[in-house]
Amino acid sequence: MKYLACLLLLTALLGMSGSHNTNRQWTAAELAKLQSLTLANLPPVTDPSNRFAQHPQALALGRDLFFDRRLSRNGKIACATCHQPNKAFSDGKPVAVALATGTRNTPALLGVAHQDWFFWDGRKDSLWSQALEPLENPAEHGLTRTELVHFLLADAHYQPQYQALLGNIATADTLQQPPTAASPQGDLAQLQAWKQMPQAQREQIDAVFAATGKFLATYVSSLNLAPNKLDTLTQHPAALTPSESAGAKLFIGKAQCILCHSGALLSNQTFQNIGTGIPGKDSGRAAVLDTLRTDRFNCQGKHSDAPVETCTELQFLTRSRHAVSGAFKVPSLRNVAQTAPYFHDGRFATLEQVIDYYTQAAQPNTKDGNDLPLIQLDATEIQQLVAFLNVL
Ligand code: HEC
Ligand code: HEC
């Protein structure tokens, strides 16, 4: 009822303010679509797999970890090196650069906790499990698991907080010998060193490692989205310029963007082949289906706090590589003006180029099996769509 009343009011208001401009007159169907893109539709974040998800002390600790450059091989790389607060927590580069140059573009993190899958190929099913990967990635933080855990449990700032949150954990001393670099993800020598450690010790290290991911995730999930002009359209119907309104109309209509970029995140959280994968080099979602199932830090693993039967996303994960070959996660478009360059490999510098790509990649002669609908837009329409994207 309330919703209907809002709609009627909005229709009336927009009708009035737009009398000089046909673009501002919305149909009820258009209004309902626009309404479906607003933050009001965003359910609260829950992550049963992270028992620290609502813990204020874990949040503060996670924030410290996120900005701490000491958590890296050269002492210069923090999560915030690539996820910069003034760029919606992205970095403005085509692909990430830290200890080495990576292959993927750094996504923004505002609102990220609302996603089902993490990374462009969705190879992680929780934020805490995601956070573990950059720490051990040789191109990013470049630490091994043992080095990281030893550092944290010996550090005057972190050690007491870990004790307080995790209770009865080993100390750096009782973890015996290694600050030797050892990890099941590392190079051959590191892998061998890991295998030579007693099982019990490996378990302890994994537990502290997983908890570190959970603290980081608690902080990352506090990075909320701020309302934009679309979200407040009901209160301020005239706030969209004619060009932005025309762009909004295209987005939900003729340009068919809403087919994939739907809901409050402007992403339907699926994986789609839009012709951006590179056969033999990056097949996107198809390449990670197996690792997702066997990941020891997934929702079903022993370090997850969620009851196994609640891990439905993993249970219903497709087994068909073919179905998701060349598919990447439909990214959120919130704050997209601040997150250039675009696409999983940062191939496009501007939003004009992205839209240009959409008009070309969908043509029958270039389509090559991708999921894109055929659309045609003239130069003005492209500018209008860009204007709308800049509102988000
Ligand atoms: C060297 C730059 C770099 C560093 C350092 C880094 N990240 Fe990232 N981050 C990336 C890139 C690139 C991706 C996407 C990688 C991919 O999809 O394969 C990413 C993806 C993510 C995602 C998933 C976003 C999404 O939409 O799926 C989260 C969350 C995240 N990083 C958090 C962190 C945290 C927490 C840390 C610190 C422990 C961290 N990152 C360190 C570059 C970095
Ligand atoms: C069939 C599903 C689909 C449709 C329809 C679609 N997109 Fe996308 N969009 C995607 C996928 C998948 C990606 C990520 C591709 C990649 O990274 O390789 C993407 C990426 C983007 C990006 C880059 C975001 C970033 O952070 O890098 C923008 C901008 C974008 N889309 C806008 C649009 C607009 C505007 C339309 C309508 C003209 C549209 N999309 C239609 C699936 C779709």
UniProtKB/TrEMBL annotation:
Residues 242-392 form the Cytochrome c domain. Keywords: Heme, Iron, Metal-binding, Oxidoreductase, Periplasm, Signal. It is found in: Periplasm. PANTHER family: CYTOCHROME C PEROXIDASE-RELATED. Pfam families: CCP_MauG (PF03150). Residues 1-21 form the signal peptide. This is C-type cytochrome.
